[in-house]
Amino acid sequence: MGRSTKKGPYIAYHLLEKVYALSKSGKKEAIKTWSRASTILPLMIGHTISVYNGKKHIPIYISDTLVGHKLGEFVPTRLFQSHKKKVERKVKKK
């Protein structure tokens, strides 16, 4: 369930400061963040943000199609290996 329109989107303050600083400087650096719950704003378009998945930072290039989504949606925290399949053994007949 999203936040009310009256409150606006949630974004971590420290992340917002980093994006503003990077926009003013014009540099193309990756911003490291642990805030998976932050909403992607139009201000972030064109930047690379590295989001922590619990093990390492995964870089995401922000494009216009990602606006409105949360950062954590694009960085899975669990890796699905697969269900074990039963292997039938071949029995030699004499």
Can you tell me about this structure?
By secondary structure, the chain is α+β, with helices and mostly antiparallel strands. The protein has a domain at 28-76: 2-Layer Sandwich (30s Ribosomal Protein S19, Chain A). It is built from one helix and three strands; from the N terminus they run αβββ. It has one helix at 13-25; strands spanning 30-33, 48-52, 57-61. It has a three-stranded mixed β-sheet with strand order 1-2-3, with helices on one face. A hairpin with a 4-residue loop joins strand 2 and strand 3. The longest helix is centred in the first third of the chain and has 13 residues, at 13-25. This is Small ribosomal subunit protein uS19c. Keywords: Plastid, Ribonucleoprotein, Ribosomal protein, RNA-binding, rRNA-binding.
Record the SSE blueprint.
Elements: H1 13-25, E1 30-33, E2 48-52, E3 57-61
Parallel strand pairs: 1-2
Antiparallel strand pairs: 2-3
Write down how many β-strands occur, each being a DSSP E stretch of 2 or more residues. 3
Largest sheet strand order: 1-2-3
- The CATH class of the domain at 28-76 is Alpha Beta
Shape: elongated
CATH architecture of the domain at 28-76: 2-Layer Sandwich
Q: Into which percentage range does the β-strand content fall?
A: 5-15%
Uncertain stretches: none
Mean pLDDT: 90
Largest sheet at a glance? Answer: 3 strands, mixed
> H/E element string?
HEEE
Distance between the termini: 65 Å
Give the number of helices: 1
| CATH topology grouping of the domain at 28-76 | 30s Ribosomal Protein S19, Chain A
GO molecular function, one term: structural constituent of ribosome
InterPro entries: Ribosomal_uS19, Ribosomal_uS19_bac-type, Ribosomal_uS19_CS, Ribosomal_uS19_SF
Family: Belongs to the universal ribosomal protein uS19 family.
Keywords: Plastid, Ribonucleoprotein, Ribosomal protein, RNA-binding, rRNA-binding
